[in-house]
């Protein structure tokens, strides 16, 4: 028997030659830049030829690695240094967006070049959006003509869905806003955007990224008013955008008012204080009484946890509305406001099924409290009602309306006798 221990196998180091493709390539855009510039110099102003050249070059050149360099050259003719100036000692081309004609047709042709490039090489989408964001931050480094071309291009790209409206965040840069660069750029951008689509499309995209309420921020704080915004963009030929921004501001003001009013009602604040506050907000935000009565109704009705049983909720509603009738009365001084309130009650009772049988009793209560007049009720009954629950509510109101008509006739008869 061999007593010697068997020697265990050992691992000895062995060198493997690293393949060249596995070595980390140094970032050197010089050769890439020379190839792109040379191709653009050959194609010149023929943008169809430019698009074909870029399409073919993607198979040979590393677009993924040098995307920023590629877009810098296409826009500015060469690589951009921080701030927006062209880097020194680099190859440049005179055939780029910034040297093109400053007109919408040329910018549409350039937008087509970018669109084809990104559709062919989908991985460039993110890099392209980042490039536009960067260019917007560099606006002060460009000439007015260059900014105008970039604005028109950006508007067209937004209209075509090539980039997200979130890129506009770059325009809220404090320095750009302070010097008026953002507002001037926005004029050209929105003109091109609306020209390609319409204001509804623009509004939709702005809402999607939560920027529909931020347009005022294109101006410095001391000029951030609805009046200034309206005049600035209306004078620039963008009344549609001005009207949209004004409407958005009004919507925002109404939402804030409703939120505050609901809190005041829930706390049980004094009616006099509530009415004073609401009237001040009406004046400040230019809110009509017809709009306001809807806000007041919603606030009053949402301040209660309603009973789920139909037979109990009516009694609860009458008690609650009797308490808040002075608040409703304060904002129904016009016939249109009364009709608006009636329609709000109709819609509320229809949308909240437990209130279906409460409609007539609510209306009668508000009539007795001088919130609703017989003229408004008769007008609602004969022509101004909406379709929601129409047959049910008209039937509920039939006897009361007949009583109102008889009372009106008796009153007229008494007046005639008095004049005899």
UniProtKB/TrEMBL annotation:
Listed PROSITE patterns: W2
Region listing for Disordered, in residue ranges:
1-28
> Compositionally biased, Polar residues: which spans?
1-15
- What is a biological process (GO) this protein takes part in? regulation of translational initiation
The W2 domain is annotated at 247-414
The record's GO CC annotations read: cytoplasm; membrane
Which controlled-vocabulary keywords does the entry list?
Activator, Transcription, Transcription regulation, Translation regulation
The record's PANTHER family line, in alphabetical order, gives:
BASIC LEUCINE ZIPPER AND W2 DOMAIN-CONTAINING PROTEIN, EIF5-MIMIC PROTEIN 2
Q: Which family does it belong to?
A: Belongs to the BZW family.
Official protein name in the record: Basic leucine zipper and W2 domain-containing protein 1-A
Phylogenetic classification of the source organism: Eukaryota, Metazoa, Chordata, Craniata, Vertebrata
């Amino acid at each position: 028997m061999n007593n010697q221990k068997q020697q265990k196998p050992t691992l000895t180091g062995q060198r493997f030659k690293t393949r060249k493709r596995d070595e980390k390539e140094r970032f050197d855009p010089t050769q890439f830049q020379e190839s792109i510039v040379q191709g653009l110099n050959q194609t010149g102003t023929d943008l169809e030829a430019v698009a074909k050249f870029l399409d073919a070059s993607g198979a040979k050149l590393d677009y993924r690695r040098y995307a920023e360099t590629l877009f810098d050259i296409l826009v500015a003719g060469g690589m951009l240094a921080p701030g927006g100036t062209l880097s020194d000692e680099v190859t440049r081309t005179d055939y780029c967006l910034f040297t093109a004609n400053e007109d919408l047709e040329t910018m549409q042709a350039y937008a087509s070049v970018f669109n084809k490039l990104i559709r062919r090489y989908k991985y460039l989408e993110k890099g392209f959006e980042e490039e536009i964001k960067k260019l917007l931050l560099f606006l002060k480094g460009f000439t007015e003509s260059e900014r105008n071309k970039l604005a028109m291009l950006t508007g067209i790209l937004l209209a075509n869905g090539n980039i997200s409206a979130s890129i506009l965040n770059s325009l809220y840069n404090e320095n750009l806003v302070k010097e008026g660069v953002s507002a001037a750029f926005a004029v050209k951008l929105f003109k091109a955007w609306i020209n390609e689509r319409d204001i509804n499309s623009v509004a939709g995209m702005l809402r999607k990224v939560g920027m529909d309420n931020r347009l005022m921020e294109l101006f410095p704080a001391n000029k951030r008013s609805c009046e200034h915004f309206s005049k600035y963009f209306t004078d620039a030929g963008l009344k549609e955008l001005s009207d949209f921004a004004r409407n958005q501001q009004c919507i925002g003001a109404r939402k804030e008012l409703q939120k505050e009013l609901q809190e005041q009602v829930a706390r049980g604040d004094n009616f006099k204080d509530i009415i004073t506050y609401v009237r001040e907000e009406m004046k400040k935000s230019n809110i009509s009484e017809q709009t306001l009565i809807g806000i007041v109704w919603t606030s009053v009705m949402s301040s209660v946890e309603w009973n789920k049983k139909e037979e109990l909720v009516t009694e609860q509603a009458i008690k609650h509305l009797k308490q808040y009738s002075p608040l409703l009365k304060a904002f129904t001084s016009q016939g249109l406001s009364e009709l608006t309130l009636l329609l709000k009650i109709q819609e509320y009772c229809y949308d909240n099924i437990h209130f279906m049988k409460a409609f007539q009793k609510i209306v009668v209560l508000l009539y007795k409290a001088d919130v609703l007049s017989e003229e408004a009720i008769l007008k609602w009954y004969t022509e101004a009602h909406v379709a929601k629950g129409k047959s049910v509510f008209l039937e509920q109101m039939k006897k009361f309306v007949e009583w109102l008509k008889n009372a009106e006739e008796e009153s007229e008869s008494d007046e005639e006798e008095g004049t005899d």
